[in-house]
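Re: that backbone. Tokens:
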């Protein structure tokens, strides 16, 4: 367009001289303006249309590229979403594994404590030693007027001591039954057991306390399996031990928490009520201690 303008100017100025003294030919300038405005203007308008088309075409290419880029971004987001989902699943599985490991660790710690205390229970029993000396006066076979004082010793060890302890408790109860006939039966049991326990506390005190601690420990067992572990303890309790526990519970009730656990889990299940000092004593203890077997 610029090139044609200069050509038209050159044509219109052909054989024309630049002289300021002459008048400007307005008609010629008007013709030049018409040519430039009509032809060159149309040419520039066409060029503008072509450039607009070219710009639109490039814009379409850009839009397609942007669409492709957007599609790739969407795919990338989908991949990331899947990765996040997989990570979430992995975290959930990891958490579940961690929870199981924690439960397993707690169970292992509990069982280690429980069986250590159960071993201590057996150790206490095995360490029980008791020598019973019985004095007796016998007649002299050579001289019947003279009497001889003899002493016999009976050695008790381990679990065998409980039979002796219970026999001594029955003897103590019998003495109090003769001396304190005026008091009620439950008070009689309390006085009898107190005298018996004061005498043998050095041998039985540690045994009772350790057993009570094991009973309370089972209450805190994982997975609410206190009955399972208390059943293990009960399987290690002999008949005479149960009889001693019975009178211990009647005469000197332990803490409410321990009584609650012992009742709930039927600690004295399989109790030999026929071996009591008086079979009516069974009424002094809640039936839940004995379970269904009584």
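Recovered sequence:
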């Amino acid at each position: 367009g610029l090139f044609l303008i200069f050509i038209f100017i050159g044509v219109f100025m052909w054989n024309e001289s630049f002289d300021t003294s002459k008048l400007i030919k307005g008609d010629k300038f008007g013709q030049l303006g018409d040519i430039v405005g009509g032809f060159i203007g149309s040419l520039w308008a066409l060029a503008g249309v072509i450039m607009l088309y070219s710009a639109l075409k490039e814009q379409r290419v850009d839009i397609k590229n942007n669409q492709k880029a957007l599609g790739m971004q969407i795919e990338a987001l989908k991949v990331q979403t899947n990765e996040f989902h997989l990570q979430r699943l992995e975290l959930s599985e990891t958490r579940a594994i961690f929870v199981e490991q924690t439960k397993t660790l707690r169970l292992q710690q509990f069982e280690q404590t429980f069986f250590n205390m159960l071993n201590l229970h057996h150790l206490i029993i095995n360490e029980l030693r008791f020598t019973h000396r019985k004095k007796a006066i016998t007649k002299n076979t050579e001289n019947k007027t003279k009497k001889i004082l003899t002493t016999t010793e009976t050695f008790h060890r381990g679990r065998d001591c409980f039979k002796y302890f219970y026999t001594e408790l029955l003897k103590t109860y019998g003495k109090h039954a003769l001396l304190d006939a005026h008091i009620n039966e439950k008070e009689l049991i309390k006085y009898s057991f107190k005298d018996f326990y004061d005498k043998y506390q050095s041998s039985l005190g540690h045994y009772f306390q350790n057993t009570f601690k094991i009973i309370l420990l089972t209450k805190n067992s994982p997975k609410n399996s206190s009955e399972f572990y208390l059943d293990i303890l009960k399987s290690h309790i002999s008949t005479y031990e149960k009889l001693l526990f019975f009178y211990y519970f009647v005469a000197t009730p332990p803490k409410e928490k321990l009584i609650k656990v012992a009742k709930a889990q039927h600690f004295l299940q399989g109790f030999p009520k026929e071996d009591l000092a008086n079979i009516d004593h069974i009424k002094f203890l809640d039936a839940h201690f004995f379970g269904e077997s009584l």
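The longest helix spans residues 26-126. Strands lie at 129-139, 147-157.
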